[in-house]
Amino acid sequence: MLLRKLLLKDEVIGDIVSIEHAEPVGWWHFSHSYVRAKQLYDEGQLAKGNAGWPINIVDPEIEDMMKNPDKDVPRQRLMERLAEDYDVSMSQTEIDGRPWFGRCVYESGNDVCDDQVVTIEWEDDPLPQKGDESMETRIKGRGAKIATFHMVAPTEKQCERRGRVYGTKGEIEYDSKIICVYDFATKQTQTHRPRQPGGGHGGGDAGLAQQFVNAIEAVKMQKMTVAEAQKAHIGCTLEEVIRSHAMVFAAEEARKERKVVDWAEWWDSNVERAVGAKGQ
Q: What is the pTM of this model?
């Protein structure tokens, strides 16, 4: 929320020109998400008394089973889950409808890559019709932009995002702990240290849940409309959420088909037409 505020509301670096964002997944995090090795869960986690993440991803009931005096009960459930697999007798719908923790990684359909770079480019926006505004006002925010997103799995850091944002008046360097703003005019750097709530995804899980509750409370107390609460507490509209998720599918299509995807065309054919067809 603070980074967004600095960039879009306070405009501390002027118009955004370029963004470099890195997403280090973490070697262990990716192993859990891709390779279902029994040793990782049993000896590495359950035997040490940990029934939280990632054990609760395999089966959330195991956490309560740990209260059973017979410690073989949770282990037996874990082994059952890690042995589950599908075969040719099952329909594709059934196979796609749930995770299969016992599936051999070399036989699975999981094609998630462990190192990916996505480049997004925006061309200059056309100038609005000439009015009373100055040229500076008319061209504000309309310049070409480029953003690169780098997701890499074999890293020491886990979900500790980092990056740089370059603007017309300065640049921002950030990670999961600090935000540094450099001003071209003053040649000074201002450092911000956002509150660290802890928890999953650098505190993002708890933070998002809290902001969601705050937004609901604001609407229920009739302090804000739904749209106002979304902007004030969530930081984005529902449409922006949908568009950001759709962007991921567009990027995946570009990766798999080895092509450049035109966003406007992709959105029209995959979203607008689909929504229009369902509404008829």
A: 0.77
Q: Where in the chain is the domain with CATH 3.30.360.10?
A: 1-27+115-194
User: Given this model, what pLDDT does residue 35 score?
Assistant: 59
Beta bridge partners of 163: 21, 174
Residues in the chain: 280
**230 and 236 Cβ atoms separated by less than 8 Å:** yes
Please give the Cα distance from 41 to 20 (Å, whole number). 35
Order across the sheet with 189-192: list the strands: 115-122, 145-152, 16-24, 162-167, 170-174, 179-183, 189-192
The yes or no reply on domain 1-27+115-194 and CATH 3.30.870.10 is no
Distance CA 229, CA 224 (A): 6
**What pLDDT, on the 0 to 100 scale, is given for residue 34?**
60
- Which of 1-15, 162-176, 265-279 comes out lowest in average pLDDT? 265-279
- Cα separation, 210 vs 54, in Å, equals 23
CA angle 201, 267, 92 (to 5 degrees): 70
The backbone region for 119, taken as left when phi is positive above 0, alpha when psi lies in -120 to 50, beta otherwise, is: beta
Q: What is the pLDDT of residue 170?
A: 98
The amino acid at 171 = E
For the cut 70, the answer to whether the pLDDT of residue 135 exceeds it is yes
